[in-house]
Structures are given as structure tokens and as C-alpha cells.
């Protein structure tokens, strides 16, 4: 009798776990709606609505599009970053595909805020410290590079910067060694450079149309993609390049929602996405859940996903580690961790 009862209980547990997010503890009368995790009004400032500098957690004050952490320091030493590019090459970079490098193998980049026709750089001042312009002098086209696409543009300081298909070319100060591509996706506007002048990742985006370039941080038209952040590594971003977060007062198993009422003024539930428009994340981890108000929210491995109103630009991570409860999400739904 005891063995039969135990077997029946185990089978019931399996059914609950495989039924999908939010079904492990269904509140009476709410169907598939999830259960609120306590009284949200008692949590107070954990929502980040205090309006002070601590609401953002960046600590730098630097323009996030620059990715310089506010220091302007070059961790790999400045000489290689400002030297001549030599013979340009095409190299295969992990997760990006074919990208243009200089003769030493350092990844070269383009900036979405620049223009190719006519060529013009929008990266000056502090931006140029984090993203050194590649000089147009002593540059030749190696295998895979069309010499006819090479050109130059005059910068504000009078120097001439290399262009490829009209796009001004840069290095990234935080790339410490050949093959690094830490600048990919920074601010949602910086991309490793493809041999045709388009972002290198564009050639790998399955949803990309012919001649179309990806939007800022959108992973080439994807509604959900993995963006590379210099501090946190791969983190999830929505179609507009906004970082997605998870909340420690939510729960995945059983599904419970801890962000309600005043919390929603600061943290916005992410909308469900089309699973055919994903980039860099397994479709089986992507789902949705019905919130107590009846709206649908995106989930990653059963964790509800949010955007932060304190993030002002694509690629911002100002909500990460907010009050020690909010964290940028990885492609597995885990908390992103700063690289040491």
C-alpha cells in the first residue's frame, strides 16, 4: 500500500514539473495565472524607484556606448591600439563568423552612429579613447578584402581614418589580445566589422533579409538575442537591444511573481517573443506566463524577464545587481556574473 502511494505521488510530481512554468502551484480560481510572492508593497526600495544614483548601479557615469568604464584606460597597452593596421585579414571569430582584423589579428569595428555616405565619424573625445580610430596610412587589403572598398575620412583633429565600404574603422581598447571581440554589441551600436562593411554577425543571422543590417542590439532582426557585454559576457537583450533582468523575489518552481504594483513603475515585464526569431538562445528555454493582471510575460527557463527603466541606451546594464536582487540574465536564465 505504501509503495503504491509513493509511486502515485512521484508520478503527480513529474506531471507538475513537466506541465510548464507557473503550474506547480496554481492559486484557486486563477487558472494558469501565477501566484504573487507576498505583499509587494512591503519590499520598498528594492524596486529601484528611489531616483538616486544608486538606482543605476553603474558607478562610472560614462556613456555606455563607449564601453570605457569611465577610465579611458587601455588594459592591453596603447601602442598596439594606435599603430598602423598593416595588411587587413578576414578571421573566423567564435559566435560571430568572418570578421576583419588588422595584421596582428586585433578585431576591427564599426559604429552604428557613423555614416558611410558620406563617410563621417561620430566618435570623438572620450569615445575615441575607448575606440581608437584606425589610421588610413600603411593599410593594404589581404585575402578576402576588396581593395576597392578601402578609403579614408578626415577626423576633427585633422588625421585620416581608414574606412571600409564607407564605414570608419576602429579598434576597441579592452581587446587585450588577437582574436578578442569584447566590443561586439557594446551599447547596441558597436559591431565587429565584416568584409563588406556590414556587422560581421549579420551574415549569420537566419532572419536577415538580403542587404538588410541588424538594428541596434537586435541580433540581426531577432526578437531575443545574446549581446556581448565587456563586464558580464553574454546577456539577453530584446528586439530593441534592452537588457533583460530577473528578480530574486520571483520564483521559477513553483512560479511566483514578486514584482507587482509600484515595482512595475521601474521594472517592466518583457513581452513574449516569436520562437522563430531567436538568436543565440535555445527555443526550449523560452516561454511565457500569465501574470496576476492577466497579461503575458516572457520567461527564460521559467524565470520572468524584465527591462529596467533606468537603462537609457541599448546595451545599458544599470539594473544589474540593483539592491542585490535584480540581475541581467544569461541565455540559460541564470544570473550574469562579472568576469574576474
From TrEMBL:
Protein keywords: Signal
Low complexity biased stretches: 73-83
Matching InterPro entries: Lipoprotein_repeat (IPR005297), SCO0930-like (IPR047910)
Protein name (database record): Lipoprotein
Species: Streptomyces subrutilus
Residues spanning the signal sequence: 1-24
PANTHER family named in the record: BLL4220 PROTEIN (PTHR39335:SF1)
Family annotation (PROSITE patterns): PROKAR_LIPOPROTEIN (PS51257)
Region described as Disordered: spans on this chain: 59-83
Pfam families per UniProt: Lipoprotein_15
GO annotation, biological process: alkane catabolic process
Amino acid at each position: 500500500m505504501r509503495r503504491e502511494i509513493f509511486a502515485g505521488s512521484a508520478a503527480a510530481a513529474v506531471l507538475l514539473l513537466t506541465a510548464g512554468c507557473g503550474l506547480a502551484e496554481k492559486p484557486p480560481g486563477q487558472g494558469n495565472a501565477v501566484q504573487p510572492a507576498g505583499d509587494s508593497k512591503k519590499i520598498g526600495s528594492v524596486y529601484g524607484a528611489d531616483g538616486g544614483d544608486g538606482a543605476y548601479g553603474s558607478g562610472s557615469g560614462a556613456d555606455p556606448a563607449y564601453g570605457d568604464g569611465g577610465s579611458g584606460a587601455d588594459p592591453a597597452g596603447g601602442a598596439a591600439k594606435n599603430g598602423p593596421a598593416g595588411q587587413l585579414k578576414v578571421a573566423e571569430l567564435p559566435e560571430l563568423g568572418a570578421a576583419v582584423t588588422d595584421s596582428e589579428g586585433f578585431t576591427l569595428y564599426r559604429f552604428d552612429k557613423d555614416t558611410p555616405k558620406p563617410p563621417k565619424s561620430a566618435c570623438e573625445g572620450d569615445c575615441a579613447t575607448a575606440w581608437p580610430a584606425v589610421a588610413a596610412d600603411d593599410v593594404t587589403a589581404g585575402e578576402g578584402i576588396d581593395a576597392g572598398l578601402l578609403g579614408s575620412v578626415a577626423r576633427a583633429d585633422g588625421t585620416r581614418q581608414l574606412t571600409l565600404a564607407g564605414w570608419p574603422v576602429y579598434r576597441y581598447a579592452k581587446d587585450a589580445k588577437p582574436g578578442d571581440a569584447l566590443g561586439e554589441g557594446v551599447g547596441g551600436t558597436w559591431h565587429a566589422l565584416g568584409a563588406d562593411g556590414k556587422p560581421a554577425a549579420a551574415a549569420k543571422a537566419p532572419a536577415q533579409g538580403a542587404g538588410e543590417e541588424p538594428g541596434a542590439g537586435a541580433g540581426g532582426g531577432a526578437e531575443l538575442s545574446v549581446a556581448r557585454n565587456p563586464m558580464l559576457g553574454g546577456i539577453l537583450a530584446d528586439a530593441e537591444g534592452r537588457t533583460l533582468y530577473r528578480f530574486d523575489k520571483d520564483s521559477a518552481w513553483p512560479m511566483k511573481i514578486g514584482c507587482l504594483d509600484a515595482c512595475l513603475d521601474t521594472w517592466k515585464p518583457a513581452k513574449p517573443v516569436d520562437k522563430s526569431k531567436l538568436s543565440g538562445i535555445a527555443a526550449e528555454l523560452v516561454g511565457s506566463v500569465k501574470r496576476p493582471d492577466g497579461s503575458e510575460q516572457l520567461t527564460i527557463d521559467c524565470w520572468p524577464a524584465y527591462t529596467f527603466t533606468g537603462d537609457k541606451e541599448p546595451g545599458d546594464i544599470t539594473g544589474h545587481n540593483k539592491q542585490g536582487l535584480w540581475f541581467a540574465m544569461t541565455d540559460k536564465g541564470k544570473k550574469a556574473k562579472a568576469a574576474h
